Write the structure tokens for this entry.
Amino acid sequence: MVNVGVKRVSIGAAAIAGAFALAACGSGASQPAANSANTAVGAGAVGGAGGGGVSDVSKQRSDAAGKSGTAPKSAADSTPRCTTADLSASLGSPTQHQDAAGQFDVPLKYTNTSSHSCALHGVPGVDLVGPDDPNGTTYHLPRIDNGVPMNVVEPGQSATATVTVLTQTPGSVGSLGSTGWTPTRLVTIPPGQTQPLTVAWPSSLTVMRQDSATHPGSFVNGILADPS
């Protein structure tokens, strides 16, 4: 889980603080959940101050870039993000996670159902929703930003984020005494979006609730490109 810090700068007696609420990670942050959007992603700011010479510096940089043969942005960089309306979601079969007993990987596949190419990268928001539990009916999964930095999905093609979960094993107890919790559905928000997609959760796969754990065994990984 990656913590995003907020930097405050004080100038004289005035203080300016900025705060951004993110739903799903776009390209370098890791926060929980199903809005994930993750989350106005990829924002940047450049500031400058000074009495003079700014134009000269800009010109020098421009000249240097021209001499070095700097290439223009690629088509991939300018491809618009996939919206929720562009996508459908589905879950694959669980497989054991790196030979770790009780931990499983569930592929969460996003398919581009639109007629145009779109960019899908970053970490989606994922909530597991199920019956009542001491921790509540919704388990917000933390996110790990370990996916590809850019990924263009053509119409009919897909990209996948793996959902890793720790199952309930005999004798194990989760947060607040939770036991035997099985989600009924997974709710996900693609990176950069606010509208969710919902898919049914495998009825045979229990999940140990670790809502208050520092390093829980359940989390969602970044999106990777699927083979063409």
About this structure: Residues 1-23, 27-71 have pLDDT under 50 and may be disordered. The CA atoms of residues 88 and 191 lie 14 Å apart. The longest strand covers residues 103-112. The chain is about 5% helix and 25% strand.
